Please model this.
Amino acid sequence: MCHTAAVVDHVFADLTLAALYDHLNPWGPGDDFYLGLLREAGSVLDVGCGTGQLLRRARAEGHRGRLLGLDPAAAMLVQARQARPDVEWVLGDVRVRTWQQEFDLAVMTGHAFQALVTDEEIRVCLRAVRAALRDEGRFVFETRNPGARAWERWTPDRVHEVTAADGTPVRVWHEVRDDGPREGRVRFTETYAGEGWTTPKVCHGVLRFLDEESLAGFLAEAGLTVEAQYGDWRRGPVTPTSPEIITVARRAPASPANPG
Model:
């Protein structure tokens, strides 16, 4: 299971656990997909950037434009700043940090969009992202396709093992509560158990699963036009059971009635 902003505020407020994030989420096809987009953009806003893997890699390979990572967890940004002080790292979220037409590209990776569990949270985020984009700027993010029923695989028997910076082996597992989704929301726990720890560390999270039609409605309301959607990182089509709904949206031109 890929971690999301749903667990950041709680579990990853712990510096020890924040240091495990990249081990639990190694670079993969999704990161390659987003990195390709970053290479073509002069300025990039990464909403819910976590430890900043994506922006760090872009800068390391020579990106000379503005790269800004926004995240509500200070412990995650500690990791980001230590690795690349030449990237802008901003503590907070789009409710309190705003920009006006400053970026060519905005991204939300790691299924962070699914941590927006209410309609109002989604609307606030999309309005803020649109405001931050220049004309014709793009917003790219992914959500798990509800038809693929990924939560059925989040079971305690599927244990991930990583090693902390001090050499301590740490086991991580997930468990869905309430026997599955309710109104599109999946409640789960994420448990960390380290060798020698007195007790495991447990986080309670909620993720929202939206279908294509619902996503399109929220985007249109915010003034964002869907340019493309993919069902996997190879840019295959969205099908009833494709694992992802990867959305590429563009900032729609402002109208006289809605100058934005």
Notes: The first helix runs from residue 5 to 8. The CA atoms of residues 170 and 194 lie 4 Å apart. Confidence is low (pLDDT under 50) at residues 1-12. The chain has two domains: 5-144+209-251, 148-208.
